[in-house]
Amino acid sequence: MQAKPPTLFCHQYQCSLYSPTASLSLLFVLFGSFLPWRTRSSSWRSDAPVSAGDGFSFSGGKYSDEPNPSDEWFKQGKFVKAHPVDGTGDKAKDPIFGLTMGAGSQASGDVFRWFCVESRNADNPTIVLIHGFPSQAYSYRKVLPLLYKNYHAIAFDWLGFGFSDKPQPRYGFDSHWVVIAFVCPEIKYKYVSALESFVNEVAANKVSLVVQGYFSSVVKYASNHQEKLYDLILLNPPLTAKHANLPSTLSIFSNFLLGEIFSQDPLRASDKALTSCGPYAMKEDDAMVYRRPYLTSGSSGFALNAISRVMKKELKAYVEDMKVILMDKNWKVQTTVRWGQRDRWLSYDEVEDFCKNSNHKLIELPMAGHHVQEGSGEELGGIISGVISGRILT
C-alpha cells in the first residue's frame, strides 16, 4: 500500500490519549499553509493499525507494524536512571490549554530516564558523546563503531530529546525548567547537576567529553569538575560575539503561537533543523529516527519550544561566560575545538584567533557542516580517537 501523509482527521478521530486535540487541530488548520506535510516513508501511515502517539503531535502518531529504523536504534540502547525528579509531583500539563498530557508525555515519577547507546567494555577509557541542538544520540551512529574497540563510548539523549524523559515546565525541575541551565551557565540550575548525576552513573572514573554545538554549555559542568575529565572536545561551539544569535531555523521555534505550532511539526523540528546547518542530504531511514519523538509525543515539541525561547534570550550571555571559562588561566582540561568549515549557522570568523589566544587545539574539517558527526562521522571518530590517545599534535 502506498504511504500516505498523516491527516488532520486521522489525528482528531483516531488518537485518544490526549483530549484537547480538536482545539489544537483548529490552530493547525489556521496555520496549515505553513506546514509541509510530505513524506516518502512507509514507516508511518494514517491507516496503520497501531497508534503509538500521545495524540498531541500534529502527525497523528500512527505507525505501521513494519520494522523501522527507529526501533532498530532503540534495540541497541538502554535506559539509565539518574537525577531525582523535582517539581510539583503532579501530572504534566500542556502549556497551551493546561490539560493533562498522555502517558507518553510524562516523565518518570522518581528518577529521570536517559536513553543511551554504549560499548559493552566498561574497563576501557570512557568517552561521553553529547549531541547538539536539536538532535539526538543517533547523530553519533557513525562515530560509535570506531570507538568501541579501544574505548567505553557512550552517546545519550539529553533530557527533552530522543527517547529520554521530557520534563515539562513545572513538572520535573521545580519552577525552573530544565533548559535554563543550558544558557545560564553562571547559575547552578538543575540541568548542570542532572548531567553530573548521569556522568557519575555511567562512569566511576575520569572521562573525556565530546560536545556538539549549542549544548557546549557542558563547559560549565567541566569547569566545576575538571578533576573528572581527561579531554574536552568541542564540535562547532558558539565561541564569538558573532555566534550570539540563534539562526532563523531555530529561533522560529521561540515565536509566540507559531513556535508552539512549528515545534510540533516533525519535518521542521528534525529534517529542516538538521539539514539547514550544513551540506547534508539526509536519508529517509535516518530522518525517520529523528522524526519519531515528534510523531509520538507532544512533549518533544514543547521541550524544543521552551529551550528555543530561553536560548534566544540568553545566548549572548552564555557565549560570553563560556569564553571566560575557556580562557581562564586556571583551566586545566586538555581542550580541542573541531570546526566544520561549511557550518551555515556559525561563522568561522575569529574562531582561529580564539583558539590561539586560549591555547586550545583547533582541527578544521573543510567539508563538514555544523553537525559534523552527521556528514563526517567516520572522520570525526578517527579524530576523537587520535586526540584522546595523543596521536594528533597541532
Structural class of the secondary elements? alpha/beta
Strand arrangement within the widest β-sheet reads: 3-4-6-5-7-8-9-10
- N-to-C terminal Cα separation, in Å? 55 Å
Give the averaged pLDDT, no decimals: 77
Shape: globular
| Alpha carbon gyration radius | 20 Å
What is the tally of helical segments?
15
Order of helices and strands: HHEEHEEEHEHHEHEHHHHHEHEHH
| Strand segment tally | 10
User: How much strand?
Assistant: 5-15%
Give the low-confidence spans: 1-63, 171-188
The largest pleated sheet is described as:
8 strands, mixed
Q: How much helix, percentage-wise, in residues?
A: 25-40%
Give a verbal description of the structure.
With 394 residues, the chain is an alpha/beta fold. Helices cover 36% and strands 14% of the residues. The chain has 15 helices and 10 strands. Strand 5 (126-130), helix 4 (144-147) and strand 6 (152-156) form a beta-alpha-beta unit. Mean pLDDT is 77; it is low at 1-63 and 171-188.
Short description:
By secondary structure, this protein is an alpha/beta fold. It has helices spanning 8-14, 21-30, 69-76, 144-147, 180-183, 190-202, 218-224, 248-251, 258-262, 266-275, 284-296, 298-327, 351-358, 372-375, 377-389; strands at residues 50-51, 62-63, 78-84, 111-118, 126-130, 152-156, 207-212, 229-235, 334-340, 361-365.
Task: Considering the chains and any ligands shown, give keywords for the structure.
394 residues, alpha/beta, two-stranded antiparallel ribbon, 36% helix, disordered N terminus
Fold blueprint:
Layout: H1 8-14, H2 21-30, E1 50-51, E2 62-63, H3 69-76, E3 78-84, E4 111-118, E5 126-130, H4 144-147, E6 152-156, H5 180-183, H6 190-202, E7 207-212, H7 218-224, E8 229-235, H8 248-251, H9 258-262, H10 266-275, H11 284-296, H12 298-327, E9 334-340, H13 351-358, E10 361-365, H14 372-375, H15 377-389
Parallel strand pairs: 5-6, 5-7, 7-8, 8-9, 9-10
Antiparallel strand pairs: 1-2, 3-4, 4-6
